[in-house]
């Protein structure tokens, strides 16, 4: 006997509940990757603390523990210089939560966050010959009727590092922003290859077998094509729904380097990749890059998620 419309609806509803019941535990079981700072836990120059444990309370000190009742960035490291170091080392600006593992340098006295840069302080600013020189004949005095020819040879060169080389074999100096997705960090280099600033990033979410390709940050060579100010908002995220139009998420100091991708501040840089494809930055880093360093045309090199 054919089921009635009401019976078919009830069967469909029950099937939906069963699918949801079996799907939710699977989704909930998707493991998040470890926090970036955990890779330092075996390094003799660092020690690691677990938020909410006695070692974190000792790090904070009795007075801080009594005052706050829980660990915070300010409570654990009231000295701003040290706090900035620890936050950048861990690639994190989010609120500390129980169970988080945080890496702390053993010796921070007299140091700044630049002493913990995962990039060289100076890039190799030179070129090296590749293959045979390319030669051509150039006519001299052709307009005066007393023509003579001169043989000119130019070396074919490649840069040592992230630079370009001119036809004379000399490096072409230019500003450079490197986004290293494997190290969750950016670097800003001056025209002569000097590291001016570095900071944490969070790129497109890449969680192993659960990666969503549309969320990955593009890798390759690009340049800044547009810049926006502190009030910039996304035109794409959050996704459009029936009740809410698309866009509207704040993306202060957005700097586009590829259609649909840019560098910008975001309030959660969580020590792992978590964005929809853009590169999240700490507020001070985004502001500095936008207002004091990056120009339209500034080169951007995005390195892959896994180091070569």
Task: Give the helices and strands, then pairings.
Layout: H1 5-28, E1 46-50, H2 54-60, H3 62-68, H4 73-76, H5 80-89, E2 101-105, E3 126-129, E4 134-140, E5 148-154, E6 157-160, E7 164-165, E8 171-172, E9 176-180, E10 185-189, E11 195-202, E12 220-223, E13 226-227, E14 255-258, E15 261-265, E16 279-281, H6 283-293, E17 299-303
Parallel strand pairs: 9-17, 15-16
Antiparallel strand pairs: 1-2, 3-6, 4-5, 7-8, 9-10, 10-11, 11-16, 12-17, 13-14, 14-15
How would you summarize this macromolecular structure in one to three sentences?
With 308 residues, the chain is α+β, with helices and mostly antiparallel strands. Helix content is 20%, strand content 25%.
């Amino acid at each position: 006997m054919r089921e009635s419309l009401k019976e078919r609806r009830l069967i469909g509803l029950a099937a939906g509940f069963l699918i949801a019941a079996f799907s939710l535990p699977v989704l909930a079981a998707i493991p998040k990757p470890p926090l970036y700072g955990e890779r330092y836990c075996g390094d003799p120059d660092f020690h690691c603390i677990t938020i909410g444990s006695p070692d974190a309370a000792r790090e904070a000190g009795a007075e801080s523990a009594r005052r706050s009742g829980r660990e915070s960035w300010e409570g654990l490291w009231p000295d701003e210089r040290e706090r900035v170091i620890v936050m950048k080392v861990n690639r994190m600006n989010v609120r500390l939560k129980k169970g988080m593992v945080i890496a702390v340098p053993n010796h921070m006295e007299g140091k700044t966050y630049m002493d913990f840069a995962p990039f060289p302080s100076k890039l190799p600013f030179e070129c090296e010959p590749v293959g045979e020189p390319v030669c051509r004949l150039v006519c001299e005095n052709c307009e005066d009727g007393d023509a003579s020819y001169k043989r000119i040879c130019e070396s074919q060169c490649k840069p040592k590092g992230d630079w370009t080389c001119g036809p004379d074999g000399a490096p072409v100096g230019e500003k450079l922003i490197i986004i290293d997705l494997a190290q969750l960090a950016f670097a800003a280099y001056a025209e002569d290859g000097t590291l001016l600033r570095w900071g944490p990033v969070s790129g497109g979410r890449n969680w192993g077998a659960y990666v969503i390709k549309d969320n990955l940050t593009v890798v390759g060579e690009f340049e800044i094509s547009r810049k926006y100010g502190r009030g910039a908002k996304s035109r794409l995220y959050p996704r459009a729904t029936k009740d809410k139009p698309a866009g509207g998420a704040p993306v202060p100091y957005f700097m586009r380097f590829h259609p649909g991708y840019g560098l910008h501040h975001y309030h959660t840089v969580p020590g792992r990749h978590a964005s929809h494809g853009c590169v999240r930055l700490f507020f001070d880093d985004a502001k500095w890059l936008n207002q004091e360093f990056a120009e339209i045309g500034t080169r951007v090199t995005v390195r892959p998620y896994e180091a070569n």
